[in-house]
Amino acid sequence: MSPIGIERVNYIALNAKDPEAAAKYAAERLGFTIQHAAPDGTHYLSAHGVDRYSLVYKPGDAHGLHHVSYLVGDDQVLDQAGARLERAGVEVSRHLDHEWEAKPALRFSTPGGHLIEFTTGVHTAIPVAHLVEAPKSGGAKPVVPDHVGVGTADFDAEEKFMTDVLGQLHSSRILGPDGAQIMSFMRSPGRYLYHDIVLVRTPGPALHHIQFSLKNVDQFYETAEALQANGVKIEWGPLRHGPGHNIALYFRDAEGYWFEYSVEEEIILHDPTYVPRTWTVADPHVVDEWNSGQPPAELMGPPPADALLGTDLDETFGTKAAQS
Description:
By secondary structure, the chain is an alpha/beta fold. It has a single domain (6-323), classed as 2,3-Dihydroxybiphenyl 1,2-Dioxygenase, domain 1 (Roll), CATH 3.10.180. The chain has eight helices and 17 strands. The strands form two sheets. A nine-stranded mixed beta sheet has the order 14-15-16-13-9-12-11-10-17. The radius of gyration is 18 Å and the shape is globular. Pfam families: Glyoxalase.
C-alpha cells in the first residue's frame, strides 16, 4: 500500500476535567509553555520544537484521547488523503476553522474508535528532534511528540486499517505467551522515525501513553532531574526499550495520563530493506534492555480507575513470562 502522506505527529489532544489546571501543571512542571486558552476552556501548549502547539487539553469528562493530529505535506496531499479514505468507506469530516490557528483539516475515526486528524503545518525533511538546536532554557525540555500508544479490543481490524488504508509499515511486534500479537509498532514510510503510533491489545478503546522526544541524552538526564525537582514522580525509568531502543522514562500528568519522555529512538533510513523484528514477552529485553526493573503495575494497568488505559500488566508485557 502506498503512503497516504503522513509526515509526523503534529499534536496530541487529551480530554481533561480541568484543562486550566492540567495546562498549568504541564507548564510549571513538565516543560511546556501555554500559548493560548480558548473561550471553551481548551488550552494549547507548545514544546521546544517547531510547532505552534504540541499538547492540547480539551474540556471533557471522558478520560482519554480526544484526537491525535498528524501532518501531511500540503493541501493537495490533504485532499488526496481525504479522497482515499472515502474510497475505503471511511466517513471523513472536513474543517476550515476547528482549532486555534489551525489550517484546513480532516478528521476520521479508526475501527477501534480513535479520532485522527490530518492537517498541514511545518514541513521538516528530518525528524524535528534531530533538526532543532538543543533548548537552552533550564528545566524539562520536551521537543516534539513522535508517537502515541492506543489500545483496541479488535486489534486485527485496527492493524489492518493502519496498513491497508493509511499505508503504515511495521517496525516491530510483540507476541504474547499464546503467540497472539499484543503490541504493534508502526511508522509512516520515508519519514525515518521508528514509530508514530503503537497499537496495544486492550479490552476496549484506550489511551495507553503519549510520548515526547528530547534532543539528546544530556538533556534527557537534565529533564529527569528537573521533573523530580518539580515534584513529578518518575514511575519507571530511566530504561532502554527493546523496540525502538530509545532511552525512556515515564510519569503522569495532572489528569493521570501516562507521558513518556525519550531520546535516541532508532531511525529507519531505507524502508525497503528494513526487516521488522518480532519480540516475545518471554524475552526480558523487550521491556528494558538494561533490565533495570519491571514497570510499576499502575503504569501498564488502568490508571485512573475509571478509564481503560491498557490491559493487565502481565497480559500487556508478560512480566510473569519474563521472570520465569
